[in-house]
């Protein structure tokens, strides 16, 4: 890791070099988070490029909406890691990187020289973070898996059965993105560990395990105990009635969650009898009887506008939020002003909104947004840099940066 030479504050991960060898969403999403925090993320793409460049709107030109946001602030180099001619370049990149993130299956990692033994031999200080459907340390490590497969295998899809009677997929790539964030968590944990050892490490992120843990925290329920003391599932969130309620001019979430909130809400709607109602008197009672609780909220919302509801609830400090439609995010009075959204101009696609990091550091600036590079756009610069790197970069390891 290189050390900053200026007295001016730098982005949080300035000086960290990350090699991203992946495709579609999970590893690129992890790389995006690291790049948005200032890391130098070098995206290594197979011949023809990441398929994510061609998925969805704008994909016909290789500049899909997906890639415009996932690849911004990165650099790109095209390598065929499976051929001998490109192997020396990949090995120089490995020796140059502080961190490698990849969602290639174990058999492909071994073929490309991205297995832990090879990486550690080339660069003992480098951190390797791998992620795929199943643990690399299990017989299932090479089973292919995408987001839907993980939702099916982790219990996540079954939570919809618990609520609606049939399994379903979430309407967004929740497994890829949660596991991408977990990769970032793994990388930062490994960087911290190098502070004492100075040595790299291999951390594996199995998607099935990650998402099963994500699901089980609240939904393992009575099966948390051995023997079981009840059913799986958290009744409050599984009730079909648990959803935003219709107001006169839209939908809204009203959430008098604590007993104090509930007492204030009962005063607001002039129903003191609900304070002693057996299905409503305590938080535990409301959690056990969500259909009763939600019906009260639905009746309340149905007679008012979202603005009236918000004004009334805020007077009592009761949590409240109107539903923001996806097509209204940029116009929302709060989200539209969030620094995570920034207006940018793409050389091919024109004006667009970059979706960046939601984090704000009090003493670290956001890096300027750089356009997502075309395939192999940074080859010459990258080859020039690694060609000069006959030894590890100044600073030696991530530990030096963490200790400064």
List keywords for this structure.
alpha/beta; Rossmann fold; formyl-coa transferase, domain 3; six-stranded parallel sheet; three-stranded antiparallel sheet; globular
Topology:
Layout lengths: L16 E5 L4 H11 L3 E6 L19 H6 L3 E5 L8 H10 L2 E4 L3 H7 L3 H7 L4 E6 L14 H7 L2 H9 L9 H24 L4 E5 H13 L15 H4 L6 E3 L2 E5 L4 H10 L14 H6 L1 H13 L3 H10 L4 E3 L18 E6 L3 E6 L23 H9 L10 H6 L1
Parallel strand pairs: 1-2, 1-4, 2-3, 4-5, 5-6
Antiparallel strand pairs: 7-8, 8-9, 10-11
Structure description:
The protein has 16 helices and eleven strands. By secondary structure, the protein is of the alpha/beta class. The chain folds into two domains: 243 residues, Rossmann fold (3-Layer(aba) Sandwich); 78 residues, formyl-coa transferase, domain 3 (2-Layer Sandwich), CATH 3.30.1540.10. The strands form three sheets. It has a six-stranded parallel sheet, sandwiched between helices. It has a three-stranded antiparallel sheet with strand order 7-8-9. A two-stranded antiparallel ribbon has the order 10-11. Helix 2 links the parallel strand 2 and strand 3. Helix 1 packs across helix 8. The chain is globular.
Estimated radius of gyration: 25 Å
The CATH architecture designation of the largest domain is 3-Layer(aba) Sandwich
SS class: alpha/beta
CATH class of the largest domain: Alpha Beta
Protein name: Crotonobetainyl-CoA:carnitine CoA-transferase CaiB
GO molecular function, one term: CoA-transferase activity
Organism: Brevibacterium siliguriense
Keywords: Transferase
């Amino acid at each position: 890791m290189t050390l900053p030479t200026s007295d001016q504050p730098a982005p949080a991960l300035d000086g960290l070099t990350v090699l991203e060898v992946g495709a579609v969403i999970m590893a690129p999403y992890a790389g995006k988070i690291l790049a948005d925090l200032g890391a130098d993320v070098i995206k290594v793409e197979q011949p023809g490029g990441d398929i994510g460049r061609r998925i969805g709107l704008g994909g016909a030109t290789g500049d899909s909406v997906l890639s415009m946001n996932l690849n911004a602030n990165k650099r790109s180099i095209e390598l065929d890691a499976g051929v001998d001619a490109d192997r020396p370049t990949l090995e120089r990149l490995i020796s140059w990187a502080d961190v490698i993130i990849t969602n290639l299956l174990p058999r492909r990692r071994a073929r490309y020289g991205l297995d832990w033994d090879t990486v550690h031999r080339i660069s003992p200080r480098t951190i390797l973070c791998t992620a795929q459907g199943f643990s690399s340390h299990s017989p299932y490590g090479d089973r292919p898996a995408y987001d839907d497969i993980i939702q099916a295998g982790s219990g996540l899809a079954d939570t919809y059965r618990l609520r609606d009677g049939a399994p379903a997929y979430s309407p967004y790539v929740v497994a890829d993105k949660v596991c991408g964030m977990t990769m970032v968590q793994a990388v930062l944990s490994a960087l911290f560990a190098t502070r004492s050892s100075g040595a790299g490490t291999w951390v594996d992120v199995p998607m099935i395990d990650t998402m099963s843990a994500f699901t089980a925290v609240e939904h393992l329920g009575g099966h948390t105990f051995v023997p079981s003391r009840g059913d799986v599932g958290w009744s409050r969130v599984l009730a079909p009635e648990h959803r935003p309620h219709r107001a006169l001019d839209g939908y809204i979430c009203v959430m008098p969650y604590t007993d104090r909130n509930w007492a204030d809400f009962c005063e607001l709607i002039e129903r003191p009898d609900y304070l002693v109602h057996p299905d409503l008197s305590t938080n535990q009672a409301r959690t056990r009887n969500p259909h009763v609780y939600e019906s009260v909220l639905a009746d309340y919302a149905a007679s008012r506008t979202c603005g009236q509801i918000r004004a009334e609830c805020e007077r009592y400090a009761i949590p409240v939020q109107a539903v923001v439609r996806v097509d209204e995010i940029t116009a929302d009075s709060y989200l539209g002003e969030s620094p995570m959204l920034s207006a940018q101009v793409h050389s091919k696609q024109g004006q667009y909104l970059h979706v960046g990091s939601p984090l704000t550091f009090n003493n670290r600036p956001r890096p300027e947004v750089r356009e997502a590079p075309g395939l192999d756009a940074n080859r010459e610069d990258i080859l020039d840099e690694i060609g000069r790197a006959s030894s590890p970069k100044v600073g030696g390891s991530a530990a030096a940066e963490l200790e400064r």
